[in-house]
């Protein structure tokens, strides 16, 4: 009998959980614990870290996990590396459900950078209104350029003081093109900083920036160890030995 562990984080992880539940596969959905009110899933849920590679290895052995699916955010590099190491240590098959990165389209004005610090350096010196679409864990370096008026968007209200004054939007995606267009226009956004997350759920801001002719500082994905990867829920189900109808 298979027993799968889904390391969740992207929207497709919820679609996968639904497909696995429909197929009657024994599975656990794991949240990292950074969101205070995570979305419900049709599978048993665990919340929080595992305690590094050794903790994840212990969990895999103790819970009888036979397959691990890494469906974390493309920038959750530490968790993905831990999954590779723990699955190697325990001899557990690992598959990454990883959406393709966005690619530049005609009309895009991208400044592609390697990391958050390079994104800070790429911002202009003259004061500007900047939308930081990068998550709250990565905003601190932007305090080095306090002259800008920053707009931030979080799933949960911030619990601690921010490292700089900012306009905070509390909202959960996916976001629409029209909504992103209105948000940028009403706030007078002139620059956008984004991580190349890929997928459709967060793409609207990139399309809206193209429509408005705004520059986007695009942070590249971190390098990860080689691992088997797919881009669709159907491919994961095939790997698990099941067929699925996503329209069901």
TrEMBL record:
Organism domain of life: Bacteria
Molecular function per GO: precorrin-6A reductase activity
Pathway(s) where this gene product acts: Cofactor biosynthesis; adenosylcobalamin biosynthesis
Keyword Phosphoprotein: no
GO biological processes: cobalamin biosynthetic process
Keyword Ribosomal protein belongs to the record: no
PROSITE patterns: COBK_CBIJ
Enzyme Commission code: 1.3.1.106
InterPro entries in the record: Precorrin-6x_reduct
NCBIfam families reported in the protein's UniProt record: precor6x_red (TIGR00715), PRK08057.1-2 (NF005968)
Protein name: Cobalt-precorrin-6A reductase
Source species: Bradyrhizobium betae
High-level lineage: Bacteria, Pseudomonadati, Pseudomonadota, Alphaproteobacteria, Hyphomicrobiales
